Amino acid sequence: MVKSGTMVAWLLHPSPRIRKSIIISALVIIALVLSATQMLNRSFEPVYHPLDIKDEARSLLEKLYQAHRGSDAEMKDADTATDTDTNANVNGKGTPQTTSVPPDPENPYLSNTVLNVQYRPIDVQGFLGMMPFDPKKNYYKDQFCPDLLYKSSDSKRIMENSKARLLPDDLEGLNEYLRKTGYGSLFSRKHNDFSPDADLSEVDFTSYPDWFRFTGSSVWLPDEKVHLMASRLLYAPAKYPLMSFIRLQIFDADWNEIKGRRLLYVDAPEHDIKEAMGNYTRSHNEEDLDSVSIKFPGILDIDLDEESREFLLGPEDPRIVYNDVSGIPEPVIIFNQDANGGRAMYLTFPLERTPRGMKKPTLKLRTALMGDGTYEKNWTPFFDTLDPKPEANMRGSMYVMYDINPLRVYKCSLDSGECFIVQQEGAKAPNPRGDKLTSIRGGTSLIPIPRYVVQRLLRRDGILDSDYPLQMWLGFVKTHINDCGCGHMFYRPHLMVMVKQEHSFRVDLLSDSMDFGKDVMSFDDHSSVYCDDGNNVLNPNEIAFWDISYERPNEDSVFDLESKLLPYYDDYLALTISEADENVQVIFLKNVLNYIIGAYKHGTLVLGKKDVGREVRERTKKVESCVLKAASRYCEIYSLTHKRPPPETID
Questions:
Q1: Cis link prior to 297 (omega < 30° from 0)?
Q2: Angle, helix 270-283 to helix 52-67, in steps of 10 degrees
Q3: What percent of the chain has pLDDT over 90?
Q4: CB neighbours of 297 closer than 8 A, spacing ≥ 6?
Q5: Is 351 in contact with 224 (CB distance < 8 Å)?
């Protein structure tokens, strides 16, 4: 037993070893107390994230919009989208199917307008570029088009489409823009009753005829939960193009236009947002918000380059894509415009801030070998999600399909505009109609097929590496055929699947002409669908969204992710289209992915080394050749069913 005096001495004069242990224990206890205190404080004090101020700003902008909606009549006017009559179901036969599906709260764009409408089967065939073939033979020379034909016999792999839904525009804000910029004075060049010295504030430009809006391209903005649309607004008196602008609008999940709403600029600093919000709270002057937000609808105020050309001024064929591979996701608009006596491709970023008093900056796209005076258009943009992430504060790169016949791909910097060639080799597929124009051109952007779907198809081919360098995209291209029997010019959409295996791009699937069951209005007489009344033009503009579920169980087997059976998915796609360069419509499709996957029952996703090399060019060339022939034949058949009937004779 230890005596009390000894115990006191031990406590007052511990050995060095004991002293060290006591100090360490005390420090540990202090650290634990501080940690607990900090955790307790976190329970009662809010943690501010970088997005909080932006969320607060979005809430303010939404309240401002709701306050300005006005009367019930104005609210009704905002709901302007209407269904168009597709008349006879020319190319898609079958009984319309009506579903009743609740909207998806996680994906608001899957609204009742999309889910609970009638869908009709699409009767369309395609041509395949990945079918197994004797390696000793040539895919282009030794294959026949009927051998490459794909038409799904599985009812669950047949695409379906809704009726087209018209998206009109009353040109709100156009007068203000033309007066503010002075572009309204250009009317004096074409109107004798319009004086060059006229007071622009007294002119109602929207009352003049011959305004045309088409090429409407749209993307979904996940943070703002709206569809952002960029379309071409053309003024062409007596069919002579004079001015062209990029029109900006936003739509809700049911495709009703939202007027008077503001969207926050993606690059607005938090300090500026706080300052603008504070200024507006005190003044209630909306101009205080101009530095951090953009109001819709409106005109994209870019430089029209008046020195380059007297007629036509302005951008053409806008395409809008969503860049979600950079540090700051944002929409990108690609368009063509006059430059140095030719026509060049440009980029602009509609949700980036514009310096006060200046035009919206644009970025010219060019390669080192591209000289002045070239005529560029119909570039097809897309992103590769397998590319490395760009450095901080950099936008990264965007790919463009420069041409499909032959398949040429560029990679362009979104920061400098410089492009370099990724793939250019290949021979052009011959024109099946000799010297009569028959070509395949760009249409929509290309949308990546989700990685989990690609990995599932790779596993079916025995590839277990989740990072295997193979990527797939979906898009819609168009054929332009002259003098095929229906007007002078004939345009139709075609579904396309492009694949990149290692460093080689190819076309695995290209469909025949698609009309979605529409009798297309004639170019010269919009009340007519007859080929006798001018060009017959149906253009694909953009894939507004493509929603794909996870794999659903196969009814014929136990659910197995490693199954060799081709998987099924539920998917919905929104495609914007234009008829006769006259309007903008949206159409909804189902089973697009199932249709695509069904094609791989007849082929393989992973090609051998020989095919990935030189032979892949022959495969793509053959597919293009078959589609050109089929499109010409489609036009001939369509013209026979759309001729004006002879006048009735009276005995």
A1: yes
A2: 30
A3: 58
A4: 169, 172, 173, 247, 248, 249, 250, 257, 259
A5: no
d(CA 571, CA 586): 16
8 A C-beta contact, residue 244 and residue 234 = yes
Rounded distance between C-alpha atoms, residue 276 and residue 287, angstroms: 9
Structure tokens at 46: 């809010």
CA neighbor of 616 nearest in space, from 462, 499, 512, 476: 499
The encoded tokens of residue 153 equal 């016999």
Q: Can you tell me which residue has the tokens 């992710």?
A: 561
Question: What does 437-483 look like in DSSP terms, one character per residue?
Answer: -EEEE--SPPEEPPHHHHHHHHHHTT---TT-SEEEEEEEEEEEEES
Neighbours of 72 (CB within 10 A): 8
C-alpha–C-alpha distance, residues 505 and 424, integer Å: 10
d(CA 190, CA 327): 47
Eight-state DSSP code of residue 93: -
For residue 88, what are the contacts with CB-CB under 8 A and spacing of at least 6?
517, 519
What is the domain partition of the chain in residue ranges?
A: 120-161+429-644
Contacts of 218 (CB under 8 A, 6+ apart): 227, 228, 229, 230, 251, 320, 541, 542, 544, 574, 576, 586
Q: Tell me if residue 506 falls in helix, strand or coil.
A: strand
Nearest Cα residue to 416 out of 371, 343, 363, 360: 363
Sequence-ordered alpha helix ranges (H) in 224-307 = 270-283
| Tokens matching residue 116 | 């609970």
Task: Look up residue 298 and give its amino acid.
Answer: G
Query: How far apart, in whole angstroms, are the C-alpha atoms of residue 223 and residue 231?
Result: 22
- Give residues with Cβ within 8 angstroms of 307, minimum separation 6: none
pLDDT digits (tens, 9 = 90+) for 253-286: 999 999 999 999 999 999 999 999 999 999 999 9
The pTM of the full predicted model, rounded to 2 decimals, is: 0.86
Q: Alpha-carbon distance 498 to 471, whole Å? A: 8
Among the listed residues 92, 124, 120, the one whose alpha carbon sits nearest the alpha carbon of residue 509: 124
Q: What percent of the chain has pLDDT over 70?
A: 81
The helix-helix angle for 592-599 and 451-460 (nearest 10°) equals 30
More confident residue, 542 or 550: 542
Who's near 482: CB < 8 A, 6+ residues apart? 436, 437, 438, 488, 489, 490
Residue of 47 and 593 predicted with greater confidence: 593
In this prediction, residues 93-103 reach a mean pLDDT of 51
Instruction: Yes or no: say if 259 and 76 are a contact pair by the CB < 8 Å rule.
Output: no
Q: Which of 451, 425, 408 lies closest to 615, judged by CA?
A: 425
Cα 352 to Cα 285, 302, 318, 362, distances in angstroms: 22, 13, 17, 11
Query: To the nearest whole number, what is the mean pLDDT of the chain?
Result: 85
